[in-house]
Design brief:
single chain, about 300 residues, mainly alpha, Alpha-Beta Plaits, 17 helices
Length: about 300
């Protein structure tokens, strides 16, 4: 019995992992959609969840902020997209990329895939440089193309249509798996095949590279990253205690140059890695989590 208890404790999900699971379940809590093979179109769909979660998923109770932004820009010739921009501003100022580390189902799925016992490709200059690609994707597919086609009165959410793996994984796959949508297979074409190839690349890359989609592709993470330094919630460094040893950066699996920059997802793993206990997870001035252990220097003095 004691060995069983030890195994359960060793494999029990972390607090962050549980929050990721709860977020994914809450985002897709419309069980009737899975049962009927239908997309929920009720009043809650006018709202946006913080993370990347496809509108077309049968269980999705609210909209995806990235999809909503593209649709709003596509309709900008008729009305300004203030509502969606306001939502992104609120999420950005309050949460920043804490959304990516704690509240995004796509990020959670990638972390689970990365646990597969396969060789892992470590970060380096190549991955940091490739991280700028997400800003180009944001500018081109999320902003420029929807605005360009809005002038022609042609709605085009380009990122959702051509790239986003969440749409294929959560939306298309779940809808096509339901017998009620069997006749939809006859309408599938080259675009659908391409999206499946993108999904396969997403799965394979996540297995070998930690959060590859988040680091190199995701425009929503690029948006939230712009708010990382000012967001209310996130990982912060106590400057007076920091010795710039670099342990936090070397421990981090993301492509950060320093704690809390645009690449940081505020997962909090660096908190326990800091020998000076200088890193904390905070909501404004309130400390939500810190390393309660003894500093390395103090421990050596005791010895």
């Amino acid at each position: 019995m004691a060995s069983i208890i030890r195994w359960i404790k060793a494999h029990w999900p972390s607090q962050r992992r549980l929050v990721q699971l709860y977020a994914a379940v809450l985002y897709n809590a419309h069980v009737k959609g899975f049962i009927r093979g239908e997309i929920y179109t009720g009043p809650a769909k006018a709202l946006c969840v913080p993370g990347l979660n496809c509108y077309s998923c049968p269980g999705a109770v609210s909209a995806c902020p990235l999809g909503a932004l593209q649709n709003a820009l596509a309709a900008s010739s008729q009305r300004a997209p203030w509502y969606v921009l306001g939502i992104l501003l609120v999420y950005g100022v309050t949460l920043g990329r804490t959304v990516c580390g704690w509240l995004c189902p796509v990020g959670w799925i990638q972390e689970l895939l990365h646990k597969l016992p396969l060789p892992k490709l470590k970060k380096g200059r190549w991955s940091h440089a490739l991280g700028y690609l997400r800003y180009w994707i944001l500018a081109a597919l999320v902003v420029a193309m929807p605005l360009w086609y809005a002038v022609k009165d042609v709605p085009l959410p380009a990122f959702c249509k051509y790239v986003c793996p969440a749409g294929t994984l959560e939306g298309a796959r779940n809808l096509l798996a339901h017998p009620a949508n069997a006749d939809a297979f006859s309408m599938l074409g080259l675009l659908f095949t391409r999206k499946w190839i993108v999904l396969i690349l997403f799965i394979v890359s996540a297995a070998f590279i930690y959060r590859a989609f988040c680091r190199f592709i995701c425009p929503l993470g690029a948006i939230y990253g712009l708010f990382n330094r000012i967001s209310l919630l996130g990982v912060r460094v106590e400057a007076a205690s920091c010795t710039s040893c670099g342990r936090c950066v070397s421990t981090c699996k993301m492509d950060v140059r320093k704690v809390g920059d645009a690449g940081c997802i505020h997962c909090g793993e660096c908190i326990d890695a800091c020998p000076e206990k200088a890193i904390r997870f905070q909501a404004g001035k309130w400390v939500l989590r810190k390393n309660e252990g003894v500093k390395e220097g103090a421990a050596n003095e005791k010895l």
